[in-house]
Design a protein that fits this description.
alpha/beta; 13 strands; binds magnesium ion; 32% helix; 313 residues; three-stranded antiparallel sheet; binds iron/sulfur cluster
Length: 313
């Protein structure tokens, strides 16, 4: 993912003047096959939009997304269809994303029909397989979404994403709507499925405990940009960007010796339609220097695989 950018134009002003919302503002990120990369950040930081741009469910304003060597931003609708099979989305709210008037069997068969896969009999067989793979049973196929618990619905959402045998799954807050006890079940299921089907995950979350559980590498986003990216151990052991430090300081740490002093972030997340100049974190940063107010810090490698965009580094 190179310089991925999504600017929304909204006519919001008092006189109808255009306002540009810089939802995603030049994201660079590499995701290797078979790994789980998480994007973490507060709501409104652009993480969901980034996920959707990567799948081209939202058209990026600029940038490149290479998937197996091809820039999917340049693909025609017909070619994109082929790639879509390989890249699926799991939603935060499985209830809102499951059609209430369709049976689970039909919900799971739909993607196969859309992609013209198999005969009716073959599709039925695949649907019956997939429902068991996610821990439900054939008896559930004739039921409707409202007959299931939140956790079961997310299993159905995962089955629907999995039925096309994708390579990449973008999971946007897949457990945020669930009780904590159910969250662990779904995360464990996702990890088992990853091993079984060699899946690559882009996992989007605001929850650092969940991210710690599931990720190999973590990218921290702030106001449409990646401010720090590192493998999980390195990031949690040695958070370097002041924003990452503040985020992590709010999470209970299992090892009391490593406990970070709680850092309270001053002020609100600025509006992405009017981001601060220079380092966009500067109005909230305790280490802000003069240079921070005018110059955008580049993402630089501070040690092997650990990248930070901060003038302190
Ligand atoms: Fe803080 Fe400056 Fe680093 Fe931004 S660049 S995070 S303002 S020290
Ligand atoms: Mg979101």
């Amino acid at each position: 993912i190179k310089s991925l950018t999504k600017h929304f134009v909204s006519k919001k002003g008092f006189f109808g003047q255009e306002k540009v919302v810089r939802a995603v503002d030049g994201v660079d990120l590499t995701i290797y096959p078979g790994e789980t990369v998480s994007i973490v950040g507060e709501s409104g930081c652009g993480k969901s939009t980034t996920g959707r741009c990567i799948l081209r469910l939202i058209e990026p304003t600029a940038g490149e997304v290479f998937f197996e060597g091809r820039d999917i931003c340049k693909l025609s609708p017909a070619d994109l269809r082929g790639v879509r099979r390989d890249m699926q989305l799991v939603f935060q709210d499985p209830f809102a994303s499951l059609n209430p008037r369709k049976t689970v069997g039909r919900i799971l068969e739909d993607p196969l029909i859309v992609h013209g896969i198999g005969t009716a009999q073959e599709r039925q067989k695949r649907v019956e397989e997939i429902i068991e793979i996610v821990g439900l049973s054939k008896q559930h196929l004739s039921r409707f979404p409202h007959e299931f618990s939140g956790g079961q619905r997310q299993r159905i959402g995962i089955a629907r994403a999995l039925i096309l045998r994708p390579k990449l799954i973008v999971a946007d807050e897949p457990v945020s709507a669930l009780d904590v006890s159910i969250q662990a079940q779904i995360l464990n299921l996702m990890q088992d499925l990853q091993k079984e089907f060699q899946l690559t995950y882009l996992f989007i979350s605001h929850d650092l405990s969940v991210v710690r559980h599931i990720s190999d590498r973590v990218a921290v986003m702030y106001l449409g940009r990646v401010v720090e990216v590192a493998d999980k151990e390195s990031l949690y052991r040695n958070p370097t960007h002041p924003y990452t430090q503040a985020l992590l300081s709010a999470v209970p740490v299992p090892d009391p010796k490593r406990e970070l002093q709680r850092i309270i972030l001053e002020g609100d997340l600025p509006s992405p339609s009017n981001p601060p100049a220079g380092c966009t974190f500067h109005p909230r940063c305790r280490s802000c220097m003069d240079v921070c107010r005018s110059e955008i810090p580049l993402l630089r490698q501070k040690e092997e695989g650990h990248w930070v965009s901060c003038h302190l580094e």
